[in-house]
Amino acid sequence: MALDSKIPKGPLADKWTNHKNNINLVNPANKRLIDVIVVGTGLAGGSAAATLAELGYNVKAFCFQDSPRRAHSIAAQGGINAAKNYQGDGDSDYRLFYDTVKGGDYRSREANVYRLAEVSANIIDQCVAQGVPFAREYGGLLDNRSFGGVLVSRTFYAKGQTGQQLLLGAYSAMNRQIGRGKIKMYNRHEMLDVVVVDGKARGIIARNLVTGEIERHSAHAVVLGTGGYGNVFFLSTNAMGSNVTAAWKAHKRGAYFANPCYTQIHPTCIPVSGDHQSKLTLMSESLRNDGRIWVPKHMEDVKAIREGKLKPTEIAEENRDYYLERRYPAFGNLVPRDVASRAAKERCDAGYGVNKTGEAVYLDFASAIQRYGKEQAHVKGLNENDAALVKELGQEVIKNKYGNLFQMYEKIVDQNPYETPMMIYPAVHYTMGGIWVDYNLMTTVPGLYAIGEANFSDHGANRLGASALMQGLADGYFVLPYTIGDYLSNDIRTGPISTESPEFEEAEKNVRNRIESLINNNGTHSVDYFHKKLGKIMWNKVGMSRNAKGLSEAIEEIAALREEFWKDVKVPGEAEEFNEELAKAGRVADFLELGELFAKDALQRNESCGGHYREESVEESGEQKGEAKRDDENFKYVAAWEYKGEPKDAVLHKENLVFENIELKQRSYK
User: Fold this and answer.
1) Which residue range or ranges hold the FAD-dependent oxidoreductase 2 FAD-binding domain (predicted)?
2) Across-strand partners of 299?
3) pLDDT tens per residue, range 229-240
4) Of 341, 357, 349, 237, nearest in space to 293 by CA
5) Which sign, positive or negative, has the C-alpha torsion 659, 661, 664, 667?
6) Average pLDDT of 454-470?
7) Separation CA 234–CA 523 (nearest Å)
8) Can you tell me the distance from the alpha carbon of 409 to that of 270, in angstroms, rounded to the nearest whole number?
9) Residue 230: helix, strand or coil by DSSP?
10) Looking at residue 442, what DSSP letter applies?
11) How many CB atoms lie within 10 A of CB 353?
12) Is the pLDDT reported for residue 277 higher than 90?
């Protein structure tokens, strides 16, 4: 199948407007005749379900949580980007577009990213109208932060709980439609297969997680807003329930899976404390606005800190290495996530890590507390030389900006970050890869759409901070509701889709057989035993840096682990009951397949770009020595994989990326 991205013709700035003017529409009376299934109720799925129902479609929404409010989007902390230019610092649609393409290391589609920038301002207006309590400046305008990889302030925020507040906005919009009867909500339901009838996605098979019942649900189109696959690493910042199952089932039904190796390692996470952990906690990137990242300059200081003989606050300024400010003076602590993560790893690998495992660096707010404290003392006409007063006033400012994040850190680490620097280390966070979609957000299966983190479309090889919320809401509120109509306009005479067809029967049978084989396996090891083993292979050989030898080994090891899983996994309980181990087993089985394709994708992409760092592809000399080296001549494409059985048999299709508006050059943040 040829990969047709369906990018509209014409100038970049006019593409989306012209496309909307020329696509087919469904009139309001006919929308009442059309059913749409939306799987996932985070920012992408929730906003899409609410908007489609508002337009008049009959929506069935599914989430595996007990409430849509518990979707993982709730965990996003730092903010959401939009090119409003409230600061007057030179921001524009083009600048947001440029920063996003550059931040993604020139591995995303120009047309998609420009559209994202174009609709970003609408998102803020929509959310303000819904009552989202964005932070405001003294004059009443919405406040902005800076995030990594940009030289302007464009990130709108609500303290350190932006995702939660935005999700409550989408959830309230959904609830209104549930009340009207336009959305039928299925909580505690997990999608286990897509049903394809006559080449079109016409429904799903879902499992009621409370009763274990297998259900058939039909519709004229299916939309997946099911998030990313970071939990393939076992330890990640994702909620423990986050999984790849819906996307992977779509892949096995014909949807190409694009760029699985593009995974973001977030630089500011609370370090791993031991084997007992089941997930990691993120400290928002917004903290890098005011926190300075450093390690001691001298090895004797590192040793003394690890042994508990020296406190970080006792190390003099001249004996600290603010390595991001040293290496990247133009952007300093606000370099993109991939650059910051690799720099932290490099310092820790060199032996300068500051915790007992040697895998942590400091994120220090002392300078910001001083700066803000002096400013506040000046504003209030108080003594700027009173150290205790300045500290108190500065801490109050930091508390207002980041209070809940500091509170969370103290609860987990039992250290007060107002008094001593936070310890952070990179961890798996977001996945830029996902289901391949065209400009209309449709997959290679007609009638099957993927939105938000579930698709691959907007971030290239590295996502800039605060762009996940932007993409999720752009897709759900302002893109999919237009583009899905173009497809559904052909279904106004189709009538309801029957679930009594051979295709539904076959899909349900497959789901039941797989559940039976897991329940009846009677092995000796738990699901987590295999998930942890997979995570260690992924982190050690497909993690922050990759090489051909490690990737080849990972492919073989994951295939062997998958075989062992199906022979020796033990799933207690019954199929027809609430059984979280059974649900988890199905998800880990899918991770064991995705993990191999992930490593295969990383092996074939013999270049370094964004979050994908190949040790064989590094700048050897000059100002950029040691930095990632892209290979535009051979790898300027999207790698879209077609399912052919075992992951080793997957077939690669390439969507060549064309850059007409941005000059390709090696990224520099120096």
Assistant:
1) 35-469
2) none
3) 999 999 999 999
4) 341
5) negative
6) 96
7) 21
8) 8
9) helix
10) B
11) 23
12) no
Tell how strand 257-258 and strand 263-269 pair up.
unpaired
What does the pLDDT read at residue 147?
Answer: 92
Residue 668 scores a pLDDT above 90: no
pLDDT confidence of residue 574: 96
Question: What would the mean pLDDT of 21-38 be, rounded to a whole number?
Answer: 97
Question: What's the first-to-final CA gap in the chain, in angstroms?
Answer: 42
- Band of the pLDDT at 622, cuts 50, 70, 90? confident
**62 neighbors 249 (Cβ within 8 angstroms):** no
Tokens 């409010």 map to which residue? 69
Q: Residue 477, class by beta-carbon neighbours within 10 Å (0-12 exposed, 13-18 middle, 19+ buried)? A: buried
Q: 403-408: long-range contacts (C-beta < 8 A, 24 or more apart)?
A: 403/159, 403/160, 404/159, 404/160, 404/161, 405/77, 405/160, 405/283, 405/284, 405/286, 405/287, 408/281, 408/283
Number of C-beta neighbours around residue 665 at 10 A: 10
Q: 580-604 vs 502-519: helix axis angle to the nearest 10?
A: 100
Q: Rounded mean pLDDT of 180-200?
A: 98
Residues 6+ apart with CB under 8 A from 387: none
Residue with tokens 């076992």: 234
User: How far out from the chain centre does Cα 308 lie?
Assistant: 37
Are residues 435 and 455 in contact, defined by beta-carbon separation less than 8 angstroms? yes
- pLDDT digit string, tens, across residues 385-441: 999 999 999 999 999 999 899 999 999 999 999 999 999 999 999 999 999 999 999
Residue tagged active-site, from 109, 216, 337, 562: 337
Does residue 636 contact residue 657 with C-beta atoms inside 8 Å? yes
Beta bridge mates, 210: none
pLDDT attached to residue 542: 98
Mean local confidence (pLDDT), 592-604: 98
- pLDDT on residue 2: 64
CB 22 within 8 A of CB 206: no
- Kind plus residue range of the DSSP H or E element containing 368: helix 366-379
Six-digit token string for 481: 């509701």
* Orientation angle between helical segments 366-379 and 387-413, nearest 10 degrees: 140
Nearest to 630 by CA among 613, 650, 647: 613
Whether residue 49 has pLDDT greater than 80 = yes
Query: Do 157 and 183 form a contact (C-beta atoms < 8 A)?
Result: no
Q: Which helix (H) or strand (E) holds 401?
A: helix 387-413
CB 61 within 8 A of CB 177: no
